[in-house]
């Protein structure tokens, strides 16, 4: 009898908690601090606020191990021989890129031409930005996507059903780079240097992806897939209750491709055959993933895979995601399935869209666990 009454009380108090929880006002209060998730950690929050609770989404196998006990892992592709003009090795690399883009939508690249010293320095520069005094950072805090530096916590804070344990600053580095004086002092030089180098990597990747589609090497660059570059610098603070939240909810990217530099802490996972597969840190490697817009123009040949980032007691985790995409910049250029890939047996699956319209729809929807691509299907 005593146990029953205890149960009733607890159910009642749970009901009361739900009534008392006003997500909209708590989100607004969090946003108005302009201190992000780091501000909560700095304030010594032991229990994470309710707005960060992850959704009880599909119960997928959390394991990176297949039934026969083998460890799943995404391909690691060595690009070194491309710089030696070895045509045989180039064909092999293109074949590996094709296979990875069609099956995983993800692969890692090594010997890509960016010195490890530059990769380490950009991570340090991002860390310096977040470790500045809050009052200094607040001058960059905004929800206006057209500002030169957009720093905030969760781009979809007011849309998404769950807030992620992550702060971000974003800079559109191409086609119209910001004035140098608009960039944060603490990471200005390395942002410029890293962006220049990652643009070269992107152009090379689009050549390999073009060849992997059976097109001439310049095809994707000729249609301006590398025109836009947005650099997103993420900061995932340590979390006291990582099992309750996520660093980034399940999503695919609204880009042509994304090239990611991650640190040693890990937590990035890709969804493959209902398994969450860990994308392990490899020193000197960059993670490449196919974005929605490349899936659209390849008419589903290449796969924009869903991925997420786990929250972690360790931290902070730093990552730098380079999105090849013009984002919200005004553009009239239409993208649809590439005509050379179409046939009677392979008719277009998507309607034409501008990058801006695609990104606007994606951003308005937020990370709600669903793909934006079906909205653009014929």
Adjacency order of strands in the biggest sheet: 1-2-10-7-12-5-4-3
Shape: globular
Number of strands: 14
Fraction in helix: 25-40%
Descriptive account of the structure:
This protein has one domain: Sandwich (Jelly Rolls). A hairpin with a 2-residue loop joins strand 8 and strand 9 (275-278). The protein has an 8-stranded mixed β-sheet with strand order 1-2-10-7-12-5-4-3. A 4-stranded antiparallel β-sheet has the order 6-11-8-9, with no helix packed on it. Helices cover 32% and strands 18% of the residues. The model is unreliable at 1-19 and 65-69 (pLDDT under 50). The chain is of the alpha+beta class and 378 residues long. The chain is globular and about 60 Å long. Helix 4 packs across helix 7 (188-212).
